[in-house]
Amino acid sequence: MKTTPPARNKGFFGKILDRVADVAGFMTVAAVFFAMFVIVYEVFARYIFRWATIWEVEAAIMATIFATFIGGVFTLKNNAHVTMDDIVLPHLKPKVRKWLALITPVFSLIFCVILAYKSWQMFWEAFSLGWKSETIWAPPLAIPYSFLAVGVSIMCFQLIGIIVGAAKSLRSGVENA
Known about the structure:
There is one protein chain. By secondary structure, this protein is an all-alpha fold. The mean pLDDT is 89. The chain has one domain. The chain has four helices and no strands. The chain starts with 11 loop residues before the first helix and ends in a 5-residue tail after the last helix.
């Protein structure tokens, strides 16, 4: 069963969020390719040329963190995350599906708001205290912490748009209004 993107508010706010999600998707692909390139470079540098390497593993890890949390924005926009659409939803009445389409993003929003709040606190603490990684390269830890904070914050706005769309759909009686 093909999943369709969730109902969302398609006004000015929704269009901006869609554009931000598309840019996040492009940046995620770039981060994955960057991580792949860095790992291949490290293999050649360390094992073929016997060069000392200090930054490659951590740079690949940061790119993967970026891809995970910023990529989540694109994933949510396209409803590409793991869902119960194929197993549970076809067996439910349309009205129940609409209520679930409203309730699920509300709980997701609660979780994401808490996570965003805590991640912004963690970012600010790392930034203001100048935390650095405990490696020879020692990049600032505020960088990967910012990926989490920004990604989850954008997801909060997307979830608000999904909730508005689901509420309109429930009120109008039309699916994916």
